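Could you join me in thinking about how sequence relates to backbone shape in a protein? To get us started, please write out a protein record for me. Would you write everything just below, so we can both look at the same thing?
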Amino acid sequence: MEGRDSMSVDVKVRDNNIDSALKVLKNKVGPTLSAVKDRKEYKKPGVRRREEQKRNTINSIRNNKKNNSRKSYSKMSKKKYAA
């Protein structure tokens, strides 16, 4: 690894709780590993664009469901206490 900037990730294990330390490690290293997986093989620009659009539509649907459920809950609570 000469000539490259080496990254080191430090995770402290507290009270011999390895499960929480692993969770922290996965959160720190997750984006890096996904980038490596994406670059493992070449993807044509059209394929990359389609995959990104698919991911964005899934995320927008998920976010809309979350936002709509929150809005309906707040509307219900306002109606209940308005009278």
About this structure: The two ends are 69 Å apart (CA to CA). Residues 46 and 52 are 10 Å apart (CA to CA). The chain has a mean pLDDT of 82. Residues 42-74 form one domain.
